[in-house]
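Q: Could you predict the 3D structure of Cupin type-1 domain-containing protein?
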Amino acid sequence: MASPSSICLLAVLLALVSWQAIASDPSPLQDFCVADKHSPVLVNGFACLDPKYVNADHFFKAAMLDTPRKTNKVGSNVTLINVMQIPGLNTLGISIARIDYAPLGENPPHTHPRATEILTVLEGTLYVGFVTSNPNNTLFSKVLNKGDVFVFPEGLIHFQFNPNPHQPAVALAALSSQNPGAITIANAVFGSKPPISDDILAKAFQVEKGTIDWLQAQEKMASQSSFFLLVALLALVSWKAIASDPSPLQDFCVADEHSPVLVNGFTCLNPKDVNADHFFKAAMLDTPRKTNKVGSNVTLINVMQIPGLNTLGISMARIDYAPLGQNPPHTHPRATEILTVLEGTLYVGFVTSNPNNTLFSKELNKGDVFVFPEGLIHFQFNPNPHQPAVAIAALSSQNPGAITIANAVFGSKPPISDKILAKAFQVEKGTIDWLQAQFWENNHY
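A: Sure. Here are the predicted structure tokens for Cupin type-1 domain-containing protein:
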């Protein structure tokens, strides 16, 4: 039996493990490419189902993300909703997960080879962190409370731990890939099938073969007693990744919002000036918002609020809906959206492009998940006249943009000519003039 000191030494010596990953979801070239999982054709992702067989259910799952899950012996349970559960996610570059943590439970050190993760705490408290790659291997860690948001850059080793010995915790995470993958470090190194030679591992970690044999015999490597040592000392595992929006070429490129240099996104802050707060926001996403006259309020957490999101291709939003309120028809020019209902009921839908302009719509209940493909006009409406509703949405861009159709067409500055709009909509100019005179309120804050 290996001693605790041997295990700690082994954690230190994980420095010598090297990993590489190449990742990028394929760019969508049409409104959607619903996964045809029965096709004999093999492609990156899945071949497309014939559009004439597609319906709203291909973008929906009654995922019950409001329901607590039983945790495993390390004290966590990750319920991932990816392209395997929602075939409409194929080519759209995003997925979502609910993570349950038992008291003192952990989601042990792991990586997502194809995705950045953005996480918000729904219940409880979490101690979280990630480790940069060689040669610095810096740990960025933070304690998160309910409503806080934190970002884990693509490919880097990261973890979450519930420090409360009495209460469970729950988080909702979005990931910038339709199929992000997950590699739990201890399982991969010591639990591979067939196992990596104990001669190789003993030499790599500079320990006795007996220690390696004992570790390989374990079903899971992360324990509550050694958790913090493992987190700190798994630091030296190296990862490389390629992604999108735009592609990261290093561990992170925290936005330097004061740089005079203009690029796509933002230039990078000097890494020596970066700390965990650049990946964090006390966003209060657990707090209800006041809605506007259309009955909604979108609280977007993007690169402008969390500079660490720069180049990482994902963002998050809380959406509040008043009774009979709506998030009116709009598009995100740079992002697919995946949404889950936290409270209430929503009627949602999107419309495909010309020439078909087909409406795919669905009524969602608490815990359900729905996908709105990138660039398509979509909406959400709370049909309940008495109760508000709340949703959390993730978007596959650090800065997805939002174009509310009515605002853009009738509220542009300067206005579009009423002659042009009257002809386009086949109505009298007076109707256009009246519409342009309205105050088109923004619901994105």
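Q: Anything worth pointing out?
A: The radius of gyration is 24 Å.
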